[in-house]
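Appendix B. Chain record.
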Amino acid sequence: MMRQSKWKNIMYLLIALAMLIYALPMISFKPGAGLVSVFGMVWAAFAFLVIGAHLYFLLGVDAEKQRALDQIRKAKLMEWQRKWTREKEEGQGL
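Structure tokens predicted for this chain:
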């Protein structure tokens, strides 16, 4: 079963795709268009970024990266605990 946030991301992805499909034919990419074409290119780039971000989340890349980061955090915590224990033992031995 998908979490509610995944459904929300799917919905936002579809909305962004629909906006891009609707707007791309209307954007003038001709060289003489000036600021209108620059605005259209920047707007399209942001739309592609939004679509890419939602795809990144939906494909689960975050989950794999999060698991790897959790393992690194656990290893660092264990290392710090061993270091603190050694320092504590050395402090009591003096």
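Further analysis of this model is presented in Appendix C.
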